[in-house]
Amino acid sequence: MNRIKEELEKKGLTQTWLAKNLGKSYNMVNAYAQNRRQPSIEQLYEIASLLKIEAKELLAENNNVLN
What we know:
- The protein is mostly helical and about 70 residues long.
- It has four helices and no strands.
- It comes from Flavobacterium flavipallidum.
- This is Helix-turn-helix transcriptional regulator.
């Protein structure tokens, strides 16, 4: 799970803005934001850079991890 949608909203940015700056289609970025697809590690770092945050801030904690 990722927090792309939350970070975009917090910064007042749109998925269209992110798509343009990533060189990806709106549909791809929307799939990332809706957690239907997960970006590659490289894309995650690029998104974090554009949002001026650490990549780890885009990752949602999963408290249901099996031990």
